[in-house]
Structures are given as C-alpha cells and as structure tokens.
What does this fold into?
Amino acid sequence: MERFGNIIKERRKELSITQRELAALAGIGINTLTKIERGEANPSLKIVLRVLDTLGLEMNIKIKSMNL
Amino acid sequence: MERFGNIIKERRKELSITQRELAALAGIGINTLTKIERGEANPSLKIVLRVLDTLGLEMNIKIKSMNL
DNA sequence: AGGAAAACCCCACTATATTGTGATTTTGAA
DNA sequence: TTCAAAATCACAATATAGTGGGGTTTTCCT
It folds into this structure.
C-alpha cells in the first residue's frame, strides 16, 4: 500500500493541488485520502478509481512479467 | 467493476481453476470472489491484489493515454 | 522568527465489505 | 437425459472502510 500511496502523492504534487482539493475533486473524505497517501489505508476499488481518474491516471492489468 | 470482474474470470478459466479453488488460494471468501467476478462488488485493494497475484496478474498505474 | 496553509492525528459514528452457512440454480460431461 | 460439480443466491453476523469534527503538528513562505 506504501507504494500505491506514493504514486498518488507524487502525482498530486506534480499537479500542484492540495490534499483537500484532491479529496473534494474526487468526492472522497479528506481523512480517507491522507490515509491512502500514507499507505495506512486499504481503500475500496471505487475510491481508488476515483482518485486515479481525478489525477489523470489509469490502472491496467497484465500478466506478471518476469523478474530477471 | 464489470470490466474488472471479467478480467478475473477469464484469467481464472485460462488457468482452469474453480471459484472455490481461487478463493482458497487467494485466502478470500467464496462469496466475495463470485461477486467480484460478476461485477457486483467494490472490493478493497488488499483483496484485489491478492486475487491478481494468485492469478499471476499484476496491476500498474500510468498517466492516462489519449483516446483518439 | 512569525504566521498561514497544509498535513496529520484522534475519536466516534455510519456505511458497507467480507464472511460462513445452507439452499437453489446452472453447467457440462457421460 | 441424468447426475455431479460449479456457480449463484439469500441471509445474518462480524470486520473494517469511509466519514466529519476538532485539535495538533509540520511545512514553507515572507
């Protein structure tokens, strides 16, 4: 979850918006967002997708690649 | 969620395992899995990652691509 | 250093995801 | 067409995600 939170946080910073703004835009609670960014949350898929979408990010799934 | 469920279901079929087997391997309840496959669930990230991992799938996040 | 905005913490409440059990339906192969 | 396995459904109980409110700390700009 750590990793996931960092992606969100970094992207948010790139877009220069605050946690409050992102939470509002994504339609989620501020507490929920801060926990996600800190990796202290286990968010539902709905929440995840809303945040990603708001940040102009997308998630995709593929067969696991080899680790050389 | 529909889309997500289908990915899981199709991959499971490719691996020729039953819902019960996948649920057991992933360490989640059978009811949870069936709902996910039908798109009638809003699973937590933890559950999502467990299922994907069990199926040899991985999720990644990138900047949304243009729709031409 | 001072002050304001941003981020974080704590707590309690509500909403809902997750689960097991047992019954029912659907599927697919002999 | 039968029969067993697989999938779905219904229900109740528990676990936990999501939330708001208010206070504290951190950040960072002047």
